[in-house]
Structure formats: structure tokens, C-alpha cells
Amino acid sequence: MIARVAWAAVVTLNCLTVGVLLVPLVASMLVSFTPSEFIALPDRISFRWYEQFFSDLQWMDALIDTLVIAGLTIAISFPIALLAAIAFTRFYLRWRAVVNTAIMLPLFVPAVILGLGSLTFHRAIGIWGTHLSVAIAHSLWALPLVFIVLKTTLAGVDRSVEEAAAGLGANPLRVFLEVTLPLVAAGVFVAVLFAFIISVNEFIMSLFLATPDVRTLPVAIWPQIRYLLTPIVAAASSVIIVITLVMLGIAAKLVNIRHLVEHR
Amino acid sequence: MSEQVASLAIKTGARVRARIGVAVARASRYQRSLLLSPVAVFLLGFFLFPFISLFRVSLARNPGGTGYGEGTRFYVPGTWTLDNYLRFFSDPYFVQMAAFTIELGIIVAVVTTVVSYAVAYQIYRAGALLKSVLLLVVILPKFTNVLVLMYGLLVVFGSSGLVNKFLQAVRLVDEPIPMLFNLFSVVLGQTILVLPYCVLVIAAVLHAIDTSLSEAAQGLGASRARAFWEVTLPLSLPAVWVSLLLSFMWGMGAFAAPYLLGNPDLYTLAVEVDRQTNWRLNWAMGATVAFVLMGTVTVLMLAYSRMQREGARA
């Protein structure tokens, strides 16, 4: 009896939680199709805010900057994380726990601190105001996540297959490229997606590192959202949501989402 | 008999493997350092150095004045002073802000952990389809933009937002209910941002608990509620501690939620870092506030893990 009441309470709470998680996303997507000047649910579908978004050079610049920075973030974090993940799964490491903690640490540092720290340092070494500067900051968060994914996938590879290839005379590089890599292709893809998604959506570090010439989409949204709440923000948001959802959909096709919590 | 043989074979195999492992380790020491050096260089160069740089700037004299344009200095290079820290701790404005930041961290930690446990428990009990759907819903916000979420909340809960319009349309209320720009909306916003991690942590630990333990308790006559209370919950407590820690840490770092969904009384240290740096162009003070935030988070986390360790021993 108590169990049934408690369970009902839990389910009710969860319905509320799911609602609060989903409704804002759905609402901002709906609002983006409004024909009205103001935030309102559309009475008919209109693409005027999308037209405005895609014809405005400032928004387009921000979109391009966002994609360039995301590409750079992948280019920085993926190779570094891959090499580290190989070291972790194929070699004996004495300082394993320490290195692991060091790699994960940036995830637990408030973004304002990483942002302002990067700003002062990047300015001192003269890379401030470049796409690279923002991408390096994004890599601080992308790297740990890419590393976890790659480490998990590489650890799942049957070592005897690699040993067999090596035994047949392949050198380590060839074993990796021709045996290991094809086996972990899905994991590699997911890792790259993680880096991409992190970078596209990161906002606080970007805010600190942005300059008028290098501005990501979230940074361009920021003043709009604070001062003038026009539906164009909804259109800009929806563009980000669609990019992310497409990526996430591809990822979900490749890996079973339940493996996040279930242990095999 | 065959089991013994099998276990012997496994043990021998493990021993051989371990010996091969050691040999490989000796042979490949330089390969190993080659593999790890990029990550070491990256972390030193772009994580540690910015930290040091930030600390250095917090000890510089502030520029004075807030002139924009060419020649603006964000701090005075080459100067050493503790003035920024002294100002922080003597000015009630900053001290109260620090106190509120801690308070917000605690509230967010408790709310997020309770909600996360409920969601995680249903994920644990759910069938395959519902489980995937719930997990997707939970991690979706983590993969969407912070600002998109905050904008959505403004759209839904604002005074001319969808909820209020609906309530007015059905004549439930005449005046819009103010749901935003108060502590409620800040906690709500921050909880959404932190929730995904906590749900994953708790759900992962719940899934690792052997279901037969709870079944055994029920077989011995315990009610379902009692089986949960005395078996499942205690076994999942480590996840609860981790969830509290994570959400407290990220709650203290709250930025977008208090900025967009709060009011100046609900601004946190992270917000102040932005206001000092990007508005007042006083990087020295911004860096000081950032360092106090970092220090507070670190000290409280250490205190928490120590408390918990002693609690576990008692």
C-alpha cells in the first residue's frame, strides 16, 4: 500500500520533470514558426524568422564561426584523446589514477574560471581573438568526454584479435589501423560527435573569449535573449537544436543508449 | 573437478598474461610516454597555465576607470597587490554574494538529487523501451544549448508566457502569476542543467544492485516499501553522495540560470566574474572573484568528502 502510493508519487514527479525538461525545447521550436512580432504560439506556420535569420550576415557569420570552431575542437581533442586512450587500454601505467583525474579535472572547474583564465593566458601568448583560442577552450571540456568514450570502446576490443594480427607479422601501427580501428569505428564516431556537440553548445567560455570578429551562435544569442525577446532567438535556437538532434540521432543509431547505465 | 581445472587454467592464464604485461611494459616505456605527452602538453599549456595566469592577474592592481576603446587596460601588468582580495572580503556586497552562492549550491544539490533519484529509480524499474525514452529525455538538455533551455523557460513561464496565457484564457487567474526572476526559477533552471549527470550516476549504481537482494527481502516477508528502504536505498547511497557533490559543485558555478532567470539579488559569484570582466573591464577583480569561487568550491568539497568518509567509518 505504502509502496503503491510512493510509486504513484514518484511517477507523478517524473512526469513533471519530463515536462519541464521537454516543454521549453518544444515551445521554443514552436515559437520559431510564429508569424507574430512577439513571442506567441503560431496560429499559422510562418518562416519569416528563419528567413530573417538566414539572410542576416551577423547570424550567418556566427553560424560559420560556430561550425569552424567545432571542427577545430574535434581536430584538437580527438587525436590527443585517442593517443591517451591507447596508452590507457594497451599499456601498463603506473600513474594511471593521477593521469585519469588530471584529464577529467577541467569538467569540474566552473566555466567562468576556465573562460577568464583562458582569456588572460591566450591574450598573453597572442592567440586571443582567433578561432583557435575558442576551440582550445572548448577542448578542455571535449577532451575528457572524448577520452571516456574512446577508452571504453578500446577496452571492449578483444585483445586476441590484435595479438593474432601482430603474430602474423603486422607492425603495431598496421594492427591499429587495420584491425583495431575498424572494430571501434562506431565509438570513434560517437566521440567525434561528443566533441562537436560540446563545442556547438558551449556558451560561457565562448562568451569570455569572443571578440566582434569571432563569435559563436550562443554568444550572438546572449544579448538578444537578455534585452529583446524576439522570436528570432527561437529560430536561432531551433537551428542549434536541429543540428544537435540530427547528430544525436545518428549517434543513437550507432550505440545502444541503455549501455549508459546498464553493465554488460 | 572440471571446475577446478577451469579455474586453474584461468589463474595460469592470468599469470602468464600478467608476466607478458610486465615485459611489454618494460619494452614500451618510451612508446607510452609518446602516447601520453600530447595530453600532458595540452593540459599543462591550456589548463594549468591559464590557472596560473588567472591567479597572477588577481594579484595585479586594477586599472581604475572604465574607459572603452584603444589603450584600455584590463589590469596593470607587473604590479603585485592583495587589494582585490581585501576589497572582496571587506565589502558586504561581495560577501553576501558569496554566501548566496553557497546557499544556492546547497538548495540545487538537494532538489536535484531528490528529483534525480526519482527519475533514476523509474529508469531502473522500467522496461527496455521506456528506459531508452527516459534516458534520451534526460540527456537531451545536456546536448542542447544552455541558452536554448533558458529561452524556453522564459517562453513557457514568463508573465506573457504560455502557462500564464493559458491560465488567463481559462479564467483561472486575472493577473499573470510571476513565476520568473525569483529563487524558484533560478533553482528550476539550474536543476535542469545539472540533472542529467545526477540521473546517470544514480541510475548506473541502481543497475549494478543485484535485484535478487530486494526479492529475497520480500520473500522473507518485507513489504516492497520496506525492501526498498532497507535494501535498495542503502546500497544506492554512494550514488546519492556523488550526486549531492556534483550538483552542489555545479550549483555553485551557476551562471546562465541566475543571470537570465534571476534578479540582481540572486546573482552568483560566476555572474559577478562576467560583470567585472566584461562590463567593468576590471579583469583583476574578475580574476579575484573567480579565484574566491574556485577556493570556496574546493574547500567545501574537501570538507564534504571528509565528513562523508568519517560518516562511513562511524
Can you describe this structure?
Helix content of chain A is 75%, strand content 0%. Chain A has 12 helices and no strands. In chain A, helix 7 (159-167) runs antiparallel to helix 8 (172-183). With 314 residues, chain B is mostly helical. Chain B has helices spanning 2-27, 29-58, 83-90, 92-125, 128-139, 146-157, 162-169, 183-208, 211-219, 224-252, 256-261, 269-279, 283-313. The longest helix of chain B has 34 residues, at 92-125. The interface between A and B is large, with 86 and 91 residues.
Q: Summarize the main sheet of chain A.
A: none
Strand elements of chain A, count = 0
Supply the number of structural domains of chain A. Answer: 1
CATH structural fold name of chain A:
MetI-like fold
Which runs of chain B of at least 5 residues are low in confidence (pLDDT < 50)?
none
- Biggest sheet layout of chain B: none
Mean pLDDT of chain B: 86
Let me know the CATH homologous superfamily of the domain at 91-267 in chain B. Answer: MetI-like
Computed structural class of chain B: mainly alpha
Q: Give the termini separation of chain A.
A: 34 Å
